[in-house]
Design a protein that fits this description.
The structure is a homodimer of 625-residue chains. With 625 residues, chain A is an alpha+beta fold. Chain A is built from 14 helices and 28 strands. The radius of gyration of chain A is 25 Å and the shape is globular.
């Protein structure tokens, strides 16, 4: 898709009239007096969480935002492969794929040895290694990501709309056995109050919610200045449509990020060291300064800037808070969290690795299913401790990564293009968002049986692979079975050694009183409502007879008790999942996948008791009806 | 996507509330007094045409429909690969891919030799051969196709909405040198009049527009009765999610068509011979009769029907009109067409090959760019004769195909599953919509140089292939450069024998007074506004320097004269277009692609004069400004 040719216009580029490119957004009327979850902040983290909860008719949610309406022009733009996988779970990845700029190749530029005032290309790297994800790395204005979430919320069961123009003025934890936090909001000079079981602060680096729980961002002083500008420009720099890292001899660095619509481009421009405690805003840097600096770095290439939809200057630092909820570390055994923070409220860093929006959304994706499961009575509230534990560790890695990456780019000690390129390649899986690894916990198993499925690493995101659906020979991605619907998946890969294993497993899961599917699914609900069983066979689909499969794999669902034919899969002969994911062909295995697409456990096919124990540790039986 | 589990609901299944699944549709107020094009009928043909024209701010268009509002439940459902390619040109293929049912495999069932009252599977066939199209064969309710077009129209430059509840009562051709047809409409008991330069009747088998030009559908008497039902049902028939052709020993045939949402299925049920002149409606066949018949044919499998969103009975015949416009065959040299017909107004046949909606939309896709080009002064009106010439021939083939296919399925002379399967395979390219071949004409060249690109057959649709975009290494489909925007494409494939060929061709196209790009593009317009040049090189993208390319391949466009980086491509090493499409590696070639994605010509790279002559035959120079 091509757009923004005649100037940046916000909203949906497929709508011809700029005045109609975004619908009105925002709830009318006051905020509700009581909700299950109050989300503070309509950024990527807040909207990821709101979108998840909005799908649940039995969970009440309110999302408030200080700004008066939807974002039209955002600052973040990088969307990692892992985030695209999550967008697929939410159901709008195809819209992002269509509209975003794909980052296919990253190139590296250094000073020309013969003419050091000029830059020359020193290397090219495929941006994402083959097979790392079924999705590319893309770039799209954060405002459009907001739009997709707002659209999803509006279409959802609860038709959730943000309450704009709300500023949090006070947060009062529950008192005297109460279970609700009381949040006071200021709206057009009036005061509103919401009482919420849980409050989540997605309110950015200056988070009021974070402050209310006595936490702060700590980290390096910010002593390096950068400028950033989104421009429509004419240049003969040949890699202007690639991600390009340019390190000049003496003028500093430029990072080129091509943007959606084939014309727009973002340039990050190094402005140099700051004095200790100095703020770059004080330097009165103008857009003309930025352009002039970019030109000097890009020499001998010309840069003729035609339009500047957005620009800014900033200093970078890496800051992190110590815990993402309101429970002090030494009280976790005795107290349950009620107030959480996510995204920039927890961690801030430089924008140039394209990580910020991604990590923030993954924070919320991690928290969303946990909150929903607890509120719906499916899981014990101790589960909520795992949010801070898991995501604080990820944020720590992010800060470490960013510190090293920012130092390399800032070329404080003289640019080293070879080192930069080498670090970029080594960090590929990290920047793609696929390197996140949760350690063993209440919800993540030990790796005793990891050898049964070497490619489904326990604690890492489920690495999807193509398969063939048995019932209709449709080529699909197995990972796409994992929607953002709060359900666990049990993926049973059947070995070739024992043809009766499938029937025994289904007998256990379908009939045994200790089956987690039996125990944790409410009577009258569809059998896959809480835990969704899928089977993957080794045979080609022609070799299998659907009519001889256990009924648990052809469950009857809904008002008419219709068969669901979406539970059984066969390998795609062009990319056999047993081969590519290292699944033990003889023994097969069971892979448990969390609602946020992470591998929770790998177990032998006949490890019925360990399978049950995994769920028993944190799930609750529904009340008898 | 799974939906319709608890019963069929019309509209967008991604919207939770059924009451909000389709927006209001329809223009308010009276029809305009004068338009360039009046389209009669809001079916697939009418909407395809309207969607094309709605994108053009300089063409006025009105579409009227007898029914009071948008269709919620349609009868057609088959969407051929070729149609998906067209949907991509319109920009909504990804929505259809997501929502539709994919037909991956077709299975064949016959009477069991041992127990002739039972059926057994006799064969399986991959539904579409590998590599025939980048899109699958899918099935989706016609009403949803309408929705996508209506959405496109609403978002377009002209925000076109249908005028519903309009019945055509009279059509008066132009008189005394007038250029407008006068159409009288009845609306809520009132009379409205529209004067249109062109009128297109997309008003179905009982077309008023067809009658007004004195044409009629002629063909076989309809003497075979069928029933059809869309159902939610429980069955142990194992191929219920595949397209299945079932020919029982004595009870007749059933055709199973799985439908979108994973639960719905359509069954076509053979009801037997009719007396000469008999109408099936007179037999008072009930839905219970249909179900009972289907059960007998499906024996030994059970069929428990739970909901029936739609059912019907009909007799089939093949009928065709002799010409698709208002000019008698013997007056083509002296008269220009003003009134056209398309779709079911021209050809009717059985529904079971899934061709009807597809051929109708291709009729309109063929006509749309021609009407637009003439109205915009780009092409001479003689071009309009080619519509009837090209599409009447296609309709004739359709009728022939359908007659044979219907006879095979109807098993009038005893079922012959082997013959049915063999015919199905042989007809694969035809049913996929890719076999259409336009003969040489004003707009379709002779095949003297076909050997330069054996895989781009002159007169057939451009068979897309993956390529790598030079500027950013993005993997794209070359055919997806051809949008439904009325532009011609010149695709220049460069040979390895002469590296200067690219500069010479661009010199000619960019500078020569006889260059069609120079001649037919209005001064001040973007250089690719009428004819869009793209280049495909043989080298890998790493081996080419974008900065040394001719400026015609990096055109400057729009208000800011920005570079357009979307014009140059390299082979995808995994599927080299020079190899897969049989392009002469030494000599290269030029391929001209029509606005409706058909290959217009294949010429040597240096055949400048023949290239110019191709366009000179039907294009008009813009007025001097």
């Amino acid at each position: 898709m091509q757009f923004h040719l005649n100037g940046f216009e916000p909203g949906d580029p497929e709508i011809f009239d700029p005045a109609e490119r975004y619908p009105a957004s925002g709830a009318k009327g006051p905020v509700p007096a009581e909700v299950d979850v109050l989300i503070v902040g309509c950024g990527p983290a807040g909207l990821t969480l709101a979108a998840q909860l909005s799908a649940l008719p039995d969970v009440t949610c309110c999302i408030v935002e200080q700004k008066p309406g939807r974002m039209l022009l955002g600052q973040a733009d990088g969307i990692a492969c892992r985030t695209m996988e999550m967008f697929h779970a939410f159901g709008f990845s195809e819209r992002v794929l269509k509209e975003a700029c794909w980052i296919n190749e990253t190139t590296f530029w250094k000073a020309d040895d013969a003419n050091p005032q000029n830059i020359v290309r020193s290397g090219r790297v495929q941006d994402v290694e083959d097979g790392l994800s079924e999705f590319p790395h893309v770039v799209l204005n954060q405002a459009r990501v907001h739009d997709f979430y707002l659209d999803l919320m509006r279409r959802s069961a609860t038709k959730l709309e943000p309450h704009y123009s709300r500023r949090v003025t006070a947060i009062q934890p529950p008192r005297d056995g109460d279970v609700r936090v009381t949040v006071t909001l200021e709206h057009d000079g009036q005061t509103e109050t919401v009482r919420a079981r849980y409050v989540v602060g997605c309110d950015g680096a200056r988070s009021t919610v974070r402050t209310s729980i006595g936490r702060e961002l700590r980290g390096d002083s910010a002593n390096h200045a950068w400028g950033v500008m989104d421009v429509l420009a004419v240049t003969d720099f040949p890699d202007i449509r690639c991600k390009a890292l340019i390190q000049s001899a003496h003028e500093g660095s430029v990072l080129v990020i091509p943007r959606e619509g084939d014309y727009l481009v973002r340039l990050y421009i190094e402005l140099g060291q700051l004095e200790s405690g100095e703020r770059v805003a004080k330097r009165n840097i103008t857009i003309e300064d930025l352009i002039a600096k970019a030109r000097r770095i890009l020499s001998p290439y010309a840069l003729d800037v035609k339009q500047i939809p957005w620009w800014s200057v900033y200093e970078i630092g890496q800051r992190l808070t110590d815990k993402f909820d309101d429970v002090p570390a030494d009280e976790c055994a005795t107290r349950l969290p009620r107030i959480f923070i996510a995204g920039d409220a927890c961690h801030t860093h430089s924008p140039k690795a394209g990580q910020g929006m991604n990590v923030s959304m993954q924070d919320a994706f991690n928290l969303g299913w946990k909150l929903a499961s607890v509120l719906r009575g499916r899981c014990s509230p101790e589960l909520l401790h795992s949010y801070s534990a898991e995501r604080r560790a990820v944020a720590g890695e992010l800060i470490d990564f960013d510190r090293e990456w920012a130092a390399l780019l800032a070329s404080t000690h003289g640019p080293d293009p070879a080192k930069t390129q080498s670090y970029f390649i080594r960090s590929g899986r990290y920047t793609a968002g696929t390197a996140t690894h949760y350690g063993p916990s209440l919800i993540t198993g030990e790796s005793a049986h990891q050898n049964l499925a070497k490619g489904f690493v326990i604690g890492e995101r489920f690495h999807s692979e193509r398969v063939i659906r048995l019932a209709d020979a449709k080529p699909v991605h197995l990972g796409h079975a994992v929607k953002a619907d709060g359900r666990f998946r049990i993926l049973a890969f059947f070995g070739s050694g024992d043809n009766a294993a499938i029937h025994r497993l289904c007998d256990f899961l379908g009939e045994s009183p200790s089956s987690p599917i039996r125990r944790y699914t409410r009577g009258g609900a569809d059998i896959d409502a809480v835990i969704d069983l899928r089977a993957i066979f080794q045979q080609a689909h022609h070799a299998l007879a659907i009519e001889r499969m256990p009924l648990l794999l052809l469950p009857r669902k809904g008002r008419y008790a219709l068969y669901d034919y979406d539970k059984m899969f066969c390998p795609d002969p062009n990319s056999d999942i047993f081969e590519t994911r290292g699944i033990d062909r003889e023994r097969g295995c069971v892979v448990i996948v969390r609602p946020d697409q992470y591998v929770a456990h790998v177990l032998p096919l006949d490890a019925y008791q360990p399978l049950a124990s995994y769920f028993d540790a944190f799930m609750l039986e529904p009340p008898q009806t």
